[in-house]
Amino acid sequence: MYSVMLVDDDYPVLEYLSASIPWKELHLEIHSACKNGAIALERAQAAPPDIVITDIGMPQLDGIALIGELKRLKPDIRCIILSCMGDFSYAQQAVRLHVDDYVLKETMRPEQIAALLRKLSAQLAEEKERSRELARLQSKKEENAILLRQGLLDRMTAEGGLDLSWADDAGEAGIGFEGKVWLPVLVALNRLSELSRRLPDERALQLAVGQATAGLTGELSGTVLLPHGRREAVLLFPFRRSLTELKVESVRPSLRALGERLSRESGITATFLIGTSAAAPAALGRAVQQLLASGGGGGRFYLPDEGIFTLAELPLLGEGDLHDVYPEALQHIRDAFLEEDMAQLESAVGHWLDQARERRCHPELVKEWTLKILYDNQTRFVALQHYQNVFSMEVLHRTLGDIATIQELGDWMLQFFKEKMPLLGLIYKQSRRSEILRARQYVSQNIGSKITLEEVADMLHINSSYFSRLFKRETGYNFIQYVTSAKMERAKELLARSNMSVEEVAARLGYENKSYFAKLFKKHIGGTPGEYRGD
């Protein structure tokens, strides 16, 4: 549905047009009815109409000036002029502004205006359909170009770079070898899970990279982009063979500009890996193959999300893993999560991922380790009602597979915990209340024994230091104080309702030393056991 703005300083004209035109029948709506050009322009700046019907002679801003401003705001706006003036000079100005029709008010009829609006609506619909078709054709052209270049890259690296048949078609992609040296650079896209929310598929990603690459200008303007899967592309920078300057340093400014443009326009972060230059098809095929193998070989996992590096700067993977520190890491991260302390959690995650950096563990091992951390963090809550809604291991596994760098992994882990903390906070609080209740029940059931914090923590299958903090936070006093208080309350009952001696009461409550028991009782009650009983 298109919108129509009405502008006239004669209010009856506005009323007449508003009431006499069958707007719904024409599938049109009134954008606004304005008493002068200045008001109309202000409203159009907030949301331009598709069609404007305006008087010429108005205070503050006349119709001709208004149309000029509206054309600047929206070049394809359709304009109808209403006027009491039959002066040819106005008609000339209207023609220069490409006004669609010029109607004298004295001859204006509703059916005439309706017919004009129907015609203009049809024109707008035709133009929209034409634009859609042009966009479809352009998109198809760009898609075909992507497929052509992607196929060229596949052929270039096939059979170890020994099949040189691709070189016959390289010219179509702008790759020539006469007097040229080519420097390949791998563009590795990061944070695909975030990108997928803005760029829905592989082609959209490749188009975004292609559009940003088209902005490379100057001496390196002949750069060729070859897409490679979802997260990678190869840039080929051309140099004259006679050029003696260091090629690697020459491309850094262009790569920095490309990285900034990708980030600014599409929210893409990219790591650039510079390969070795080549002057012949066979050498270029090998150089590109080496670049792709090195970029996907695992070392890139330890590079920052954004930056420019050479193959020599690519970290080498080690043989170590993180299994030996798993129990400590799990407890460290779990305690921080149970405490709902993001600063502590950030420190814990950062510490253990630094261990992975130092050991240069294989990325897949680090991801498996992370998945196990997340899974084992929740095993105590598997029976809880909300578990399936909160955690899907299949989704987690798929998301981890898309993570390209350890920096992204750390940020994702923290974001994961942060997003789940409010809901899990409720679950954990339920669990905490259950743990406190079970601890109190244990104390009540074993009031006659010596009770330690460690044995209750073992009974609850949780870390003793965490249990101590949890009990203090949930009850307001520490666990040993609670046990002593419970025993003293039980001692009061025994002293008041039985004929047991003080020695017998002490023994019944697990105290071997009568004097120690009496000292605790006096501290808790304010008097000795004998004084309390009234002996």
Give a brief description.
This protein has 21 helices and ten strands. By secondary structure, it is of the alpha/beta class.
User: Which blocks of ≥5 consecutive residues have pLDDT under 50?
Assistant: 380-390
The CATH class label of the largest domain is: Alpha Beta
- Total individual domains: 4
Largest sheet: 5 strands, parallel
Name the CATH architecture of the largest domain.
Answer: 2-Layer Sandwich
Roughly what fraction of the amino acids lie in strands? 5-15%
Average pLDDT number: 82
How would you describe this structure to a colleague?
The chain is an alpha/beta fold and 535 residues long. The protein folds into four domains: 107 residues, Response regulator (Rossmann fold, 3-Layer(aba) Sandwich); 166 residues, Alpha-Beta Plaits (2-Layer Sandwich), CATH 3.30.70.270; 107 residues; 88 residues, Homeodomain-like (Arc Repressor Mutant, subunit A, Orthogonal Bundle), CATH 1.10.10. It is built from 21 helices and ten strands. A five-stranded parallel sheet has the order 2-1-3-4-5. Helix 4 links the parallel strand 4 and strand 5. Helix 10 packs antiparallel against helix 11 and helix 11 packs across helix 15. The longest helix has 48 residues. About 2% of the residues have low confidence.
Task: Furnish the topology, listing elements before pairings.
Layout (H helix, E strand, L loop, with lengths): L1 E6 L3 H10 L7 E7 L2 H10 L4 E5 L7 H11 L4 E6 L4 H9 L4 E4 L5 H48 L22 E11 L1 H4 L6 H12 L10 E5 L3 E9 L6 H20 L2 E6 L6 H15 L11 E4 L15 H13 L3 H18 L3 H14 L10 H4 L2 H9 L4 H40 L7 H8 L3 H12 L3 H19 L4 H7 L5 H12 L3 H5 L2
Parallel strand pairs: 1-2, 1-3, 3-4, 4-5, 9-10
Antiparallel strand pairs: 6-8, 6-9, 7-8
